[in-house]
Amino acid sequence: MAEVTTVGVDLSKEVIVVCAADARGRTLYYKQLSFGAFGQWAGNLPPCVIGMEACSSAHHWARTLSLHGHSPRLMAAEHVAPFRMSRGAKNDRNDAQAIAVAVVQPNMRFVTPKSLDQQAMLAWHRAK
User: Among 14, 38, 81, 101, which is most exposed with the fewest C-beta within 10 angstroms?
Assistant: First the structure.
């Protein structure tokens, strides 16, 4: 079986859906994981590029994934949307696949993951 080199991660309120791909960009498998199971699964994965749409929880996961040796990449949702295979079927699985495709694009623009202090400061400003 081919080795996972790229992962697209769709973060939602209830579950995390991942789309694992090889070096040629072929989808190897999809998984639906709980938040706790995702951390454990990612810890057992060889270091790879992991793409996510930028949101507050994505910044948390980017910090966590970096500790496991992965290269997390955050992207704005509007940059991922054009890579969704089915325009009509927006679901977690299709979103994870679109993220896996988008993250390896040579001209993709990425969001720098925020530190815990930066996120705390933003939350404080929003609460004011």
Answer: 14
Residue from 26, 40, 33 nearest 11 by CA: 33
**Which burial class, exposed, middle or buried, applies to 103 when counting CB atoms under 10 A from its CB (0-12, 13-18, 19+)?**
buried
Q: How many CB atoms lie within 10 A of CB 104?
A: 16
pLDDT at 46 over 80: yes
To the nearest 10 degrees (0 to 180), the angle between helices 35-44 and 56-67 is: 30
Contact 68, 43 (CB under 8 A): yes
Q: Which residues contact 3 (CB under 8 A, 6 or more apart)?
A: 22, 23, 46
The tokens of 27 are what? 């989808």
What is the tens place of the pLDDT at every residue in 54-63? Answer: 987 999 999 9
Q: What is the pLDDT of residues 70-82, one digit of tens each?
A: 999 999 999 999 9
CB atoms within 10 A of CB 6: 23
